[in-house]
Amino acid sequence: MNKLKIALGLQLLFFAAWGGWLLSSRNTDSPVFYLETAPVDPRDWLSGTYVALSYAINTPEPCRGLARHDAGLQLYVKLEDKGRTAQTAAGPVKIYEAAACAETPGEGQWAKAYVNFSFRGLFRATYGIERFYLNENNPLKDARSGSVVAKVKLGRANKLVLLDLVAITAP
Amino acid sequence: MSYYKRLKNDLAQAAAKGLITPEQAAGTWDSAYASRPLASFKAVHWIAAAAGLFIALGFILVAAHNWDKIGAIAKMCAYLLLFAGTAAAALRLQDKPAAAPLEILWFFMPALGIGLYAQIFNLSGDPVKPYLAWAAISAPLAAFSKRPLAAYLVSFLLFAVLFWGTLGSSNMLALTANYGRAAQPLWHWPLALVVLAGGAALYPGQKLGAPLGAAAVWTFFMLAADTAIKVRSEALVLLAGMSLAVLWLSWGRRPDSEKAGLPLTVWTASVYAMTFFWHYKPHAYHGLRGTDTVYGAALTWIIFAGALLTALFRPQRLLPEGREEDLVAKGLLAASVLCAFFLFGATEVHAKALAVTANFILAAFGVGCIMSGARNSDEKLINRGVLVITLTAVTRFVDIFGGLLKSGVAFIITGLAFAALAYFVNRGRKALIESVKK
Questions:
Q1: Were both Cys, which of A36, B144, B163, B221 would link to A3 (CB 3.0–4.6 Å)?
Q2: Tens-digit pLDDT profile for residues A113-166
Q3: What does DSSP assign to residue A2?
Q4: Which among A11, A116, A129 is the nearest to B122, CB-wise?
Q5: Chain B touched by A19 (CB under 8 Å)
Q6: How far is CA B435 from CA A37, A156, B101, B424, in A?
Q7: For residue B222, what are the CA distances in angstroms to A115, A123, B217, B296?
Q8: DSSP state, A163?
């Protein structure tokens, strides 16, 4: 068989398998919860317009004590309901916050994070949910801090999956 | 005027002058015109291509309008079908010219897929990762395709990602340090070196010059930037830069190459840049200094040793081959590297000595080009020599003398020197012709 045909088969297999993995990760039976977020809107060369999201859990205080390395570190952040809520069109929703930080996940909602520690104790945790792609005409593109919440769930291998951006309505 | 119009005119004129017969002119024209790119495309093909383009654009716009209503699985299946169709068409038409644009499309399909999946599943993360994944997925196409197109594209992509990633400070390839932080971890280095090796290996043909040049420039950036192999003393930076220029010139330029080429231009420009050390003030650069790293210093000395051995033992690429040319070129290459040692003293006198030496190297190179060009009847080489000497002379007059009177006198002296050189070159040529006749 032609080598190029084998290469094409492998390429198609890769994208089919990757697509299957992402689909199955999005459809896991873990509970859905919400995160407070602040968007801004840049553009990506490969995927188009998106809103860049920054979360309160990007600087999880419980992780501060684990700053042993100067470079990045993979950690798990425990997310739990501490009583905060946000009003949406579908009713009030619970806002989850960072409650603990560890090198291995425990019981509950532990999200995998990549934490970068910098000088003077500054650090930032990223979860792979920092972008939400949308149509150029979508009004969410102009959403401001405090006007939306992110609907997320835990996917496979404790990775957070971003499902939707939901507008906050007046109580 | 296009190449084919000019060719037609030239052939018609040659036929009118009786240099060739009208039949020969017509035959040459037909042969040249038939071999132009896309020659097999007839009017009907162009109309069909336009029809296909309009229909495709229509589908794209309709799909874009309904984009949010299309499900994830439908988007992914459509993408996989498009990918398979494009690649299958490229394979089917492998030996025909139409396969070239299809192959380019095939190269871009993984990027389209990565972008689409990121959009569907709101993926984010390392900015370099999608581009590295694209290059890795496209590497088999580059390696196995009969055409060099995909190989050029993948190689270019890898080198672009290498420079972008390693000079950044917050991605998986980053090698430069963030403000106030230590150098990036060592595990970033093997990945960067794999990307470098991949870019060089996939570059098509026997052309070593371009990948070697990119590697040399990247190595210099890594030594000069705030990385784990940084060097901070001016002497080591200069030694590394000149050594890399010599290595690129000696290994990257082919002996049969008629054009001067980028490696020769870079070497000449590097020596030219050294002439400005005349204005060097040691205390002016204290702010830029820091500590040389052990790795950086070791790498610089290795590069220097390689450049010196190359200059002395490898056939030189500075001047055309010949006993005297080899001697002069090897001397100039070695001197261009060794004169960086003047900076180890780091005093103004040492820097001035370096600048003077660099001027002499340029002048000797210019004269060498003129003499060798005259001997080999190579007009381009003579012009190169004249250009180097003129540029050096004009720069020095403006740079050092400044005043109208001094510059004017200096210009007259240079003009007389050129006239004398032209006289001796002409005498040498006549003597050479006479010796051949005897």
A1: B144
A2: 988 876 666 788 899 998 888 877 777 777 777 788 999 999 988 999 999 888
A3: -
A4: A129
A5: yes
A6: 87, 85, 57, 16
A7: 26, 26, 9, 9
A8: E
A44 and chain B in contact, CB less than 8 A: yes
CB pair distance less than 8 Å for B88 and A8: yes
Label residues B43-67 b or e (16+ Cβ within 10 Å = b). eeeeeeeeeeeeeeeeeeeeeeeee
Spatial distance between the Cα atoms of B244 and B257, rounded to a whole number of angstroms: 20
Q: What pLDDT does A42 receive?
A: 65
ipTM: 0.80
Q: Is B408 left (phi over 0), alpha (psi -120 to 50) or beta?
A: alpha
Pairing verdict, β A43-44 and A109-117: unpaired
Choice among A122-131, B3-12, B340-349 with the minimum mean pLDDT: B340-349
pLDDT at A18 > cutoff 90: yes
State whether B111 and A133 contact (CB < 8 Å).
no
Q: Do A19 and B67 touch (CB under 8 A)?
A: no
Pairing status of strand A32-40 against strand A48-55: antiparallel
Judge contact between B372 and B318, C-beta under 8 A.
Answer: no
| A44 beta partners | A48
Q: Do B91 and A2 touch (CB under 8 A)?
A: yes
* Closest CB to A162 among B112, B115, B122: B122
Question: Helix (H, G, I), strand (E, B), or coil: what is residue B75?
Answer: helix
pLDDT tens across B277-316, in order? Answer: 888 877 655 545 568 889 999 999 999 999 999 998 888 8
* Burial status of residue A63 (CB atoms within 10 A of its CB: 0-12, 13-18, 19 or more): buried
Which residues of chain B lie closer than 8 angstroms to A47, CB-CB? 115-116, 118-119
How do strand A72-88 and strand A148-154 relate by DSSP bridges?
unpaired
Q: B144 and A7: CB-CB below 8 Å? A: yes
Measured in angstroms, the CA of B276 and the nearest CA of chain A are apart by 39
Which residues, in sequence order, are CB contacts of B211 under 8 Å at separation 6+?
Answer: B155, B159, B199, B200, B203
B312 and B327 Cβ atoms separated by less than 8 Å: no
pLDDT 10s digits, B251-268: 887 666 656 688 899 999
Q: Are B385 and B305 in contact (CB under 8 A)?
A: no
Q: Dihedrals φ, ψ of B159, to 5°?
A: -65, -40
Q: Tell me the CA end-to-end span of chain A in Å, nearest whole number.
A: 65
Q: Per DSSP, what are the bridge partners of residue A151? A: A34, A164
Q: How far is A152 from chain B (nearest CA, A)?
A: 11
pLDDT band for position A99 (50/70/90)?
A: very high
In chain A, whose CA is at the least distance from the CA of B144? A4
Instruction: Find the helix packing angle between B129-144 and B149-166, rounded to 10°.
Output: 150
Q: What digits encode the pLDDT tens for the residues B390-402?
A: 888 888 777 766 6
